[in-house]
Amino acid sequence: MIPQSFILDLLNRIDIVDAIDRYIPLKKAGANFTACCPFHNEKTPSFTVSQSKQFYHCFGCGVHGNAIGFLMEYGGLSFTDAVSQLAEYAGMQMPAPVTVSMNLPDSSGSPESSEEFVQNQTNISTQDLNQTLQIAAQFYKSQLKLSQKAIDYLKKRGLSGKTAARFGIGYAPPGWQGLSAAFPDYKSEQTRSILQQVGLVVVDADKQYDRFRDRIIFPIVNLKGRIIGFGGRVIEQGEPKYLNSPETALFGKGRELYHLFSARRAIREVDRVIVVEGYMDVIALSQYSIDYAVATLGTAITSFQIQRLMRQTDNIIFCFDGDNAGRKAAWRALENSLEFLSDNKYLSFLFLPEGEDPDSYVSRNGKELFEQQLMRATPLSEFMFKELCLGINLQTSEGRAKLIHQTKPLLQQIKAPALVSLLLKKLEELSGVNQNQMAGLMQLKPALKRANIQQDHVARQLITPYRRIIMMLLCKPGYLEKLDRELLVECDETKQEQGALKALVDLLDKNLHLIENPLTHSILTYFNDIPYKTLLENIESEMLEWDDMIDLEAEFMGAQQLLRQAQRNKRMTELHSKSLAQLTDEEKQELQKLTSF
Hints:
- This protein is of the alpha+beta class.
- It has 5 domains: about 5-90, Zinc finger, CHC2-typedomain (DNA Primase, Chain A, Alpha-Beta Complex), CATH 3.90.580; about 125-245, DNA primase, catalytic core, N-terminal domain (DNA primase DNAg catalytic core, N-terminal domain, Alpha-Beta Complex); about 260-385, Dna Topoisomerase Vi A Subunit, Chain: A, domain 2; about 390-455, no CATH class; about 465-595, DNAb Helicase, Chain A.
- It has helices at about 5-15, 15-20, 65-75, 80-90, 115-145, 150-155, 160-165, 190-195, 260-270, 280-285, 305-310, 325-335, 360-375, 380-390, 395-410, 415-430, 435-440, 445-460, 465-475, 495-510, 535-540, 550-575, 585-595; strands spanning about 25-30, 30-35, 45-50, 55-60, 65, 170, 200-205, 205-210, 215-220, 225-235, 240-245, 275, 295, 315-320, 345-350, 380.
- Strand 4 and strand 5 (about 65) form a beta hairpin.
- The N and C termini lie far apart (about 55 Å).
């Protein structure tokens, strides 16, 4: 692991504007720099880089990070490779890696120094989990070289050794405790706990055994290039055919997509992504230079995964088998996509001939014919109405009424105004009900108006006192000394902004050395795994739109005053809700005091 001190020193020496401008041209825009976002397609620049705070943010797709994060996202690099490239650019010598103990930190103890606290809070436990998965991946790869059965299986499936190496494919031996060869202290309490937390072993009563046995192993990598889990496929007969790591602190099946980390550049180049159902489909397509495919992880594609893909491209092609199971999976994908559609997004569905999957089809027919199939994919609107009309007799009034009834909840989710209008027109053709009447029957608010309402709602959220205080602390952590701590007593941590404020204050309290001197970059640079990080990044991005003349201290004190007033009003309402006879003497005095302000 790279020492935290080196990473922070590197970020202090690097100017993020110079680092990013080497890859995409930035233009000066007031105090910041802008460009068309390299992570999604756009014509109007929404990608903004702050030189004063050394972070970037895209107001279009929401990506946010520092110079290291940019190289990882843009270049598809691992964390270590990104740091190495920046260090070379800055003329710094990479340090020798730090060996991290496999023992988890004692949560009851307190670190001897603030720097140790930062490392313990943000890296140690996560590093232990990551390091364990990395060791396991190397073990599985070494075992593949020793198993002729596994090698023969991959050759039979048409995989070259180069492809297997590129995807990090391995093999889990058939023994119940094969991983003991990689972890000498396999049965110790600490190692057992870590192995169990990352899903590599199953602990049942006093028994401990490997989850993956006699299976081809596929490492699953997150968008930071780190292994977070594995998929395993049986070689011969057996159930289940595919076995994935369980849900862990690092791995969520509904949040990750197989091969997305490595496929991002290819996706951006061709401006489309193919979503398939299996690891082998992705690997076979990649072997035929179709490197813009990703796979779900044993579950139906989720809304979160669809949003993640929409940040990469405007064109998503779902490629499923043509059987009933494939069509059900496609319909689920359609349902989970509707609320995120916009008029510049194009989603389509490709159903291969019966008995074919992407792996078999591309192996038999080659890249050109497969990509011709992609061009014939069924648009979302066409697929939706085709499925809705199945089993309905549109020659009858009852059948047409049923079609309208089934279409209504789907159209109500769509916020894209042009698409809604076109879908209503198509429904008019099928049902015979004119579009004006249809809009009334559907109880559709104009999509554009609804979008504006949502934007207004977001705008109102931006000015809450909690959000304003967070913003000022992110900008000037030294304002912590001016914070009225009594305002935090009533923070409801189930509410995002209040919980984020409490977490940020706790973090700063425990790391006072970070706020004693003016920071040259964002305070969030110091912390990787903090609660509410996405919300804090979004709030930090709002600084990019500030007027240079803003009085930060006045804003900070004013936000606290608003919060005091809001809490005072809330308490007065609570007391007024009681009758005078129900009030205690203390409550009467409190009410009199509150009223006197």
